[in-house]
Task: inverse folding
């Protein structure tokens, strides 16, 4: 195929769902329409390793490329629990005040505490079954990807990125309030405020998993020699390989619900300091591994087919070990956390020794351009399910429409639509704009659209599944 035909077609390229090799968040225009790439919108070359050689004379480098995302489940239940617990705590506080003035009996106070105990236990169990929140951010290394074209030896590409992500959920253990009538009488006689938190006995905990990942990629791509079939059909084939050095820190920690509740009432910062220390500790003590990817693009006139194979060597990333030899820990709080971890491991809620294997996966996408690449449509699909760093599964189907005027001063519009084939009820909607051929802004929301504007706050909260925003500045040459 003649190079003059290849150049405008090569502006549309195949990609996979996530930037680089294991960053489980979309970045740049991929926030809007998922695993679809186009040189005019600046995400070309970050995904399928065959793309740099496919792009012909078009190259881009990133000055700024950052994205933020939050994924969640059970927001409606979370709002309901907060409302219920606030009402019950206020109710028992009022009953205790009435007891002090003689308007309520000890039995009334104990009855209120029993109701609070039952409500607390039911609500924490509800959160453990339905709620999690997973915020994250990804930043690409400035001035990458950097492509070096070496003629007959192919095209070499270097890039780098950083992913920071966490997943917070609740672990439920039996909840009881250890208080008797005499303690209630003594508290009232001494004119002391009765704090229900002082009497909670529970192992229920906040479970926080954290990932800090740095990727350094080197990729090679080259046009494949023509064979009889491709020559007759006018197909241009390009293949690419990529090796990624992964520096990572995966850790997990437990924080007692009782201590979190206490800090919410007395504004103590001790536990929050511990959480902050654990989070910042994710930027040290890195482990290393390597992942290998391969890709191919098949291009015929205005149509391009991309196939990307990920993690061919199936690398494994290990989490820090949680729990173990708790009796030897001297710090009382750390020892308590350790015993809590051992308890939840014994009932199968968590695993003390855990690893994340990057299993091989494949993404296929196809795209077609119209009107000298001023309009492009594309679609992509994961052929089988994937696990993210925290074990949550997905299998994406994405469709995209790009309106791309050739004049630099006209805004370029991107529209995206997607579904997770493992959870098809929510819908992914994306919107992106490119301004002056260098600034790109992309947004995405995933929600059950029929419930998003419901009058019921619980239904409305449960409808929202994720939201993303991205900003990137890049130069084409």
Result:
């Amino acid at each position: 195929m003649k190079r003059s035909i290849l150049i405008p077609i090569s502006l549309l390229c195949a990609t996979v769902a996530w930037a680089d090799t294991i960053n489980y968040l979309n970045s740049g225009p991929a926030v809007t329409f998922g695993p679809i790439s186009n040189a005019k919108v600046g995400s070309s070359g970050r995904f399928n390793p065959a793309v740099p050689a496919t792009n012909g004379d078009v190259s881009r480098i990133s000055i700024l490329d950052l994205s933020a995302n939050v994924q969640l489940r059970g927001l409606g239940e979370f709002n309901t629990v907060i409302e219920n617990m606030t009402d019950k705590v206020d109710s028992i506080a009022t009953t205790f005040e009435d007891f002090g003035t003689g308007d309520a009996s000890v039995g009334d106070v104990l009855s209120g505490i029993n109701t609070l105990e039952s409500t607390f236990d039911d609500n924490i169990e509800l959160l453990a079954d339905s709620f999690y929140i997973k915020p994250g951010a990804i930043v690409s290394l400035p001035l990458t990807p950097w492509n070096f074209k070496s003629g007959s030896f192919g095209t070499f590409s270097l890039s780098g990125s950083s992913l920071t992500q966490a997943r917070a959920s609740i672990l439920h253990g039996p909840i009881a309030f250890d208080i008797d009538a005499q303690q209630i009488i003594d508290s009232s006689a001494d004119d002391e405020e009765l704090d229900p938190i002082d009497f909670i006995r529970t192992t229920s905990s906040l479970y926080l998993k954290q990932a800090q990942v740095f990727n350094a990629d080197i990729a090679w791509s080259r046009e494949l020699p023509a064979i009889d079939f491709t020559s007759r059909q006018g197909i241009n084939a390009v293949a690419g390989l990529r090796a990624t050095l992964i520096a990572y820190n995966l850790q997990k920690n437990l924080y007692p619900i009782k201590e979190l509740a206490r800090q919410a009432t007395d504004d103590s910062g001790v536990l929050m300091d511990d959480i902050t220390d654990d989070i910042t500790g994710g930027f040290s003590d890195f482990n290393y591994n390597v992942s290998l990817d391969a890709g191919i693009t098949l291009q015929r006139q205005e149509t391009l087919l991309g196939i990307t194979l990920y993690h061919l060597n199936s690398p494994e990333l290990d989490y820090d070990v949680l729990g173990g030899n708790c009796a030897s820990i001297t710090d009382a709080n750390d020892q308590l956390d350790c015993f809590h971890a051992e308890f939840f491991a014994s009932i199968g809620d968590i695993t003390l020794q855990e690893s994340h294997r990057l299993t091989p996966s494949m993404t296929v996408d196809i795209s077609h351009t119209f009107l000298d690449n001023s309009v492009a449509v594309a679609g992509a699909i994961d052929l089988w399910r994937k696990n993210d760093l925290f074990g949550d599964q997905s299998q994406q189907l994405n469709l995209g429409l790009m309106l791309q005027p050739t004049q630099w001063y006209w805004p370029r519009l991107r529209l995206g639509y997607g579904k997770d084939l493992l959870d098809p009820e929510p819908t992914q909607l994306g919107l992106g704009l490119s301004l002056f051929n260098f600034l790109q802004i992309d947004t995405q929301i995933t929600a059950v659209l029929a419930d998003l504007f419901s009058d019921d706050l619980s239904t409305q909260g449960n409808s929202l599944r994720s939201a993303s925003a991205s900003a990137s500045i890049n130069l084409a040459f």
